[in-house]
Amino acid sequence: MLKVGQIGGGIMGQQHMSIYRQYHRSQIKALATPNSIRGKEISEQFGVAYYANHQDMLDKEDIDAVSIATPDFAHFSIVMDALAAGKHVLVEKPLTISVEESREIVALAQQKKVTVMTLFSNRWISSYAQAKQLLQKKSLSPILGYARKNDRIFVPTEMITWSNKTSPAYFLSSHDIDLMNWLFDSKVVEVYATAVYKVLNSKGINTPDAVQIQAKYENGAIATFESCWIYPNTYPTIVDSFVEVVTEEEVIYLDRKIENIEYGSPDGFTTPRNQLNFEIGGKRIGAVPFAIEHFVDCVLDNQPTQISLESSHHVTAILSAAHKSIESGSPEKVVD
């Protein structure tokens, strides 16, 4: 039984807690979040201890691992504190938003000999996993990749309060970059990126409306990563997600805009999502539960996780180079 402390009690944090509670090999023991009113309510709901400060939880609770679901810019110090305490770590994507910080995490995790996994849950979406199997079956060289993940403007203006401290590339493309690296089985060596600042800036939110990243891989393939979060709120799904992979003889389209259901009501026409985290009979199923259960199993069975810490560090290195390219206006080498 893996004893887990949750850090961060927002939408994703509560999902994490529900999954640890339902899985027979894990137990949620405590919650640390600075919002004391909401934190106490959630803790009472789950029957766990509450801490306003994550360090107090690390010092006082008998836990084996922490699960971190905080804003991405806050990951570094929390991960480092958990590693210093000798805890295994599951952290929401991306690992960090700084390649220098990411290097420190890798070094300390290796020193402490603990498991650290970034929750790139898209690898457990069945269609993406099937694409990986098809690509492995023929073992053909990748030629071209394209991935977009675009959100309604509701996300940076209402859903998250910290969008001015991140970017659509960190928040959205991090998933796609990890996915494409996995599908291509290669590393990115150079990127060129551009961004547009207009709509959100006019609302006082200092973050790009859209980012495009052109990436060159070691194996010769090229890929484009598009992220935008100013879609109108009338768009039928909160996120438009599409991936294309072209090899020497194949093409794979992965369009998750419609996940097998379309729904119309007096409130509008929507395509509700169900592949990541969906509840049936009181139990959560989907890519997020599968990924978290995988982390638990790997820690308990002393096995490597499907998502290595080094691969997550490489995603951060790619994103760091991309944001450097936006500033310089020139291609930038990816330096792990």
Quick take:
With 336 residues, this protein is of the alpha/beta class.
- What is the CATH architecture term of the largest domain? 2-Layer Sandwich
Which class of secondary structure composition applies to the elements? alpha/beta
Low confidence ranges: none
Question: What sequence of helices (H) and strands (E) makes up the elements?
Answer: EHEHEHEHEHEHEHHEHEEEEEEEEHHE
Tally the helices.
Answer: 11
CATH H-level superfamily of the largest domain: Dihydrodipicolinate Reductase, domain 2
N-to-C CA distance: 35 Å
The main pleated sheet reads as: 7 strands, mixed
Stated plainly, the CATH topology of the largest domain is called Dihydrodipicolinate Reductase, domain 2
CATH domain class name of the largest domain: Alpha Beta
Can you put this structure into words, describing what you see?
The protein is of the alpha/beta class and 336 residues long. The strands form four sheets. Strands 12-11-7-10-9-8-17 form a seven-stranded mixed β-sheet. A six-stranded parallel β-sheet has the order 3-2-1-4-5-6, sandwiched between helices. It is built from eleven helices and 17 strands. The protein is globular and about 50 Å long. Helix content is 38%, strand content 28%.
